User: Fold this.
Amino acid sequence: MIKQFEISGGVKKALEDYLSANQTDLKTAMADETRNGEVAEIIHAGLPMMVRKIYSLEKMKTFFWTKKELMVEFVAMRLAAADKKKPAKKR
Assistant:
């Protein structure tokens, strides 16, 4: 189900700010249970309201932790896709 959603620019910035503030990278953060949950929380906040109601934050945190190896790859791919979606700045 999560594959259907993109990471918005706001969520991407929130993740980058979080990782920077904690002086870590995505893979390291996802390997720590507390930080993994915090990453899940940031991504969950960016999901559409209906999805958040159906798929609770606790479910998402559990899923992110139990599937951390898969999720680090998925999140990294979505972040890269968000970069590619940015329109080029005109000069």
About this structure: Residues 7 and 80 are 10 Å apart (CA to CA). The mean pLDDT is 87. Residues 2-82 form one domain. Helices lie at 9-21, 26-31, 33-45, 49-54, 57-66, 68-85.
